[in-house]
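ligand=N-carbamoyl-L-aspartate
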Amino acid sequence: MTFRANHLLGIEPLRPDEITALIDLADRYANDNRAGHAHKDVLTGMTQINMFFENSTRTQASFELAGKRLGADVMNMGMAQSSVKKGETLIDTALTLNAMHPDLLVVRHPNSGAVDLLAQKVNCAVLNAGDGRHEHPTQALLDGLTIRRAKGRLHRLSIAICGDILHSRVARSNIMLLGKMENRVRLIAPPTLMPAGAADLGVEVFEDMEKGLKDVDVVMMLRLQKERMDGGFVPSMREYYHRYGLDAAKLAHAKPDAIVMHPGPMNRGIEIDGSIADDINRSVIQTQVEMGVAVRMAAMDLLAQNLRARRKENQSVMA
Ligand code: NCD
């Protein structure tokens, strides 16, 4: 068994062979999902709790669907209505849930590091569904699978990640995953949205879209994370679109068969032109959503196998 982790907290601790194992399994689930085959028994008898302390459409829906396709009992905690609003700490909430004996806990939280902390307090498998600006591992994995299916490989590609890199956990997780798989990664952003020390991440840094997009195989756009900005990071939305919004003229600098990606939710007319997003010859944005379900099925399948093995070991130690 290649994938030995107890939790999926980030891309950072994963080895390339673990990433490949997870993506291979997700690829098979994607084919089965298209063919309409269910896998009801993989998580049968297991309880999955989704705790989203931040808004989500795609990620929460696909974790829920993935769990249900695999036969888990899935519970969505409405965090807006929960005791968190009454001042209960994250750890208290986690311990309360832990006492209900879940097997899989899927957590999204606005604070970087919150999900790691929580994983230390519970005895089930924890999946990070996005923590602050830190990591969003299943997003990077679904992006990897989408690229591999579109380009036939996930190595030796030239990939541009463009826009609000500073606030983006999607960018951080992708920089690590794409780097581990030996791709050439370029970051394109205005200086205000480029993290300090970006050049030390083993990437090339560009301020200009035309130069940065030259001959790339993949163009990955990012949403402007206005909720994480507390001031003037960009002069105006119009100016931002003019310089950094992906339109046909800018895309013409990439390879003729370059694909366009966006994790969603999209701001059309701010970071991307609507007609590019909808161009079925270039955009793989809907495929990303489709691969999201398959990647979450694969991640929960592998973590559940490890959890069962650990529990069995513990039982034999106690016997
Ligand atoms: C991303 C996120 O939440 O980090 N969205 C997602 O999971 N599909 C990106 C974003 O919110 O811009």
